[in-house]
Amino acid sequence: MSAILFVHARGGPPLDYALPRIAAHAEVHVLALAPLPLVTAETWRPYCASVTEAVPSDGEALVELIRSHAERLAARAVLTFSEYAVVAVARACERLGLAGAGARVEAARDKRLMRRTWRDAGVPVPGFAEIHRAADIDKAFERLTPPLLLKAAWSAGSTAHLTVHDRDEALRAWQLGRDVMAASAEDGYAELHSADEGVSDFLLEEIVTASARDWFPGPGWGDYVSVEGIVADGVYHPICITGRLPTIPPFTERASIAPAELPEALQRRIEEVSRAAVDALGLGTCATHTEIKLAPGGRDMWLIETAARFGGVMTTRQVEAVFGLDMIGMLTRQLLGRPVAYPHRMLTAPGSDGPGAQAPGTDGAVAARPGAAGSLVILAADPLGEPWTRLPVWDFDAVEWSELLGPGSTIELVHERSLPVGTPMPAYRQAEGANTMAALCFLTAESAPALLADCARIIEALPKALTAHLSTGQAQ
Questions:
Q1: Do 199 and 228 fall within a single domain?
Q2: Does residue 118 form part of some domain?
Q3: pTM of whole model > 0.85?
Q4: Which of 257, 345, 383, 420 is the most buried (most CB within 10 A)?
Q5: Is residue 26 one of the residues assigned to a domain?
Q6: Nearest to 48 by CA among 94, 103, 104, 3
Q7: Which residue has the higher pLDDT, 327 or 181?
Q8: Is the predicted pLDDT of residue 365 greater than 50, yes or no?
């Protein structure tokens, strides 16, 4: 079996889900640039032919580390699911002559370059200005219409995103954002290709008016969607659209849901905008996760970003559960130069025009698929984003989930992305976004509306549900 080098860093699907799907097609060798999840090691470790832990360097040294390790293994492919490692892995693949995201990968990482590329290609993006120094903030407010969103150019998970209304507020937010990015880097949540990237690189962009009402047939949806896909030798294959719960201030995600309950005609229009955006980036072979904001009226839309990796949290598992497509296995086969059966066109509903399940390592039995699947991020914030006034300890088993879920719904804890039981819930801070996550849960339901309702009940009830088993004197 061919060898494949998997570069582990912060983010991406949990290893206990991802590695079995890679190992179904290749001999997996892990190069770990971040601490490995020991809590699930019994599940993922048997799928590894070798595991090497390395102190992450940066720049040329990191690229050379990956390249030399892959060369020693005679690896046929190098793969990562981490936002922070995609540039380094792409550069190593170029030197090895292997399939990868390609020479233009930074356009799918640096939000400034991404927006410049899209603007020049005529892809719809909000007005923006790059912030390199304080004087750039003055110029931004001269030509952009506030309020504006300050974004770290190399961030992920809404980290260092802040809404600002005037120059002075923007200056304070820029300093706070740099502090947050520096702290994130200390924890390993920062660009690995260059230690200098991300801490001071920001942009200001106009906050476009968006609305889910004219797009979705029912309530509860957020005003943006993501198109999950794979680029294969420069050819983009959109797989499906995933929806969201509404974000909380500034724009922190709470839940991702598949399928997105949109009329097919609207999905096809989103598909074409996504295609224009991904094609403009000029990627080689990689996963893609493209976020699109939906305007009132059900017609216009704006690109938020495209990443040259799979969507975060449990997006790939959601797609597999609902649509029957193992995207991790598909990308693995593509990188190895093997045949891949892509959908003839983007799937718009379970059972629509597609090649069917490609789940690896199964015994041939076909499990019933849920009508919907989702990832719920556990944050200490109420439905409107207000931080909890009390911070209980996190304990998944202390919650009576049956009281919060609808008929036929299920929930499970994603251990690799969750704090240990007994850890106090982290306080929600807008500037830190998903960095304040306490846990991640995977849910299934009979339908997307049912799953939306499940998530809403959980978010509303969780502060009391975490302490319901305690006496008043014990609650923290």
A1: no
A2: no
A3: yes
A4: 257
A5: yes
A6: 3
A7: 327
A8: no
- Paired tokens of 4: 């494949």
List the structure tokens of 145.
Answer: 């219409």
State the DSSP H helix or E strand holding residue 5, giving kind and residue range, or none if neither.
strand 3-8
d(CA 438, CA 312) in angstroms, rounded, equals: 16
Q: Provide the domain limits for residue 170.
A: 127-206
Q: Distance of alpha carbon 79 from its chain centroid, rounded? A: 16
Q: Where are the alpha helices (DSSP H) in 296-393?
A: 315-323, 327-335
> Are 414 and 441 in contact, with CB atoms under 8 Å apart?
yes
Residues 460-466: contacts with CB under 8 Å, at least 24 apart:
460/382, 460/383, 461/403, 461/404, 462/378, 462/399, 463/380, 463/382, 463/388, 463/390, 463/392, 465/398, 465/399, 465/400, 465/403, 465/404, 466/392, 466/393, 466/394, 466/395, 466/398, 466/399, 466/425
Query: 213 in a domain, yes or no?
Result: no
Number of C-beta neighbours around residue 225 at 10 A? 28
Enclosing H/E stretch for 172: helix 167-186
Tokens of 238: 């959109």
pLDDT (0 to 100) of residue 280: 98
pLDDT at residue 472 tops 60: no
Give the DSSP H or E segment for 411.
strand 410-413
- Read off the pLDDT of each residue in 64-71 and give the average, rounded to a whole number: 97
At 435 the pLDDT is 86
72 and 166 belong to one structural domain: no
